[in-house]
Amino acid sequence: MDSLLTYENVEISFEKCPVVHDISFSLHEGEILALVGESGSGKSTLIRSALGLLNDNGKVTKGEISYKGTNLLSLREKELRQIRGAEIGMIFQDAKGSLCPIRTIGDQILESMCAHGKVNKAEAKVRSLELFEKLSFKDGEKIWNSYPFELSGGMNQRAGIAISMLLNPSILLADEPTSALDVAVQKQVVDEMLALRELFGTAIIIVTHDISVASAMADTVLVLKDGYKMEYGPAWDILHNPTNDYTKMLLSAVPRLKKRREIV
């Protein structure tokens, strides 16, 4: 099976100091890959590098990041902007912080969709409410008309997932999407991302320090420590029979979210 997204021997540096070292992995259609490790291990830096979202001091200094065979690192900003959102979507750790506080969710959805094609407000609303319903949102009309400060943190996070999926990207990058949520809302977010894979065949890379989230979602796991790859392979193997001492430490005394049964 051809890879959608491939990292080949990627090194990332800040102010010429390498912080991510020689990382290689592939993401295939419909696959869920969990990047696991403690804070500061390079997980978020890895996924942000694909979309050119490192800050001014950050740069990929070695290797290639390819999407459907095209090296993303060779693209100009204008070309990358066409892929960002439409082909590769992203959910941030603090969805509320990434939303404009003085504009409704509906207005922000419309702006996001208009950036990648011609769509009027009525069309955007219909598509949004249909997706809200598929993701089991209650009162989609109210969410469309709400400002971020009128919604809970969990609802903002769930709305952020919906916004990122309205362009039906092939890949969704999720940067610690459950870390600020309580356990009940975490499970909702996990179930919604699994539903996206089932409904649209979306491939997902989820960044998490929470082994229970990786256990509930992932097909494949990449374990990082201080920017180095510790283990990489099928989730079952790594989460149940780890060979690396660091992975064993992460797995110790961690509660697991139950993995949802696949819809046949």
Quickly list its features.
single chain; 264 residues; alpha/beta; six-stranded mixed sheet; four-stranded antiparallel sheet; 11 helices; globular; ABC-type dipeptide/oligopeptide/nickel transport system, ATPase component
Structure, explained:
39% of the residues are buried. The protein has 264 residues and is α/β, with parallel strands linked by helices. It has a domain at 94-168. It has a six-stranded mixed sheet with strand order 6-7-8-3-9-10, with helices on both faces. It is built from eleven helices and ten strands. The radius of gyration is 18 Å and the shape is globular.
Which geometry do the CA atoms define? Answer: globular
* Helix percentage: 25-40%
Which regions have little confidence, pLDDT < 50, spanning 5+ residues?
Answer: none
Report the radius of gyration as a whole number of Å. 18 Å
The structure class reads: alpha/beta
| Tally of alpha and pi helices | 11
Order of helices and strands: EEEHEEHEHHHHHEHEHEEHH
Largest sheet: 6 strands, mixed
Report strand order across the widest sheet.
6-7-8-3-9-10
What proportion strand?
A: 25-35%
* CA distance, first residue to last residue: 22 Å
Let me know the average pLDDT: 88
Total beta strand runs: 10
Annotate the secondary structure layout.
Layout: E1 3-14, E2 17-28, E3 32-36, H1 43-50, E4 58-67, E5 70-71, H2 77-83, E6 88-91, H3 95-98, H4 105-114, H5 121-134, H6 140-145, H7 153-165, E7 171-175, H8 183-200, E8 203-208, H9 211-217, E9 220-225, E10 228-234, H10 235-240, H11 245-251
Parallel strand pairs: 3-8, 3-9, 6-7, 7-8
Antiparallel strand pairs: 1-2, 1-4, 4-5, 9-10
Pfam family, one: ABC_tran
Domain ABC transporter: 5-251
Membrane topology: Peripheral membrane protein
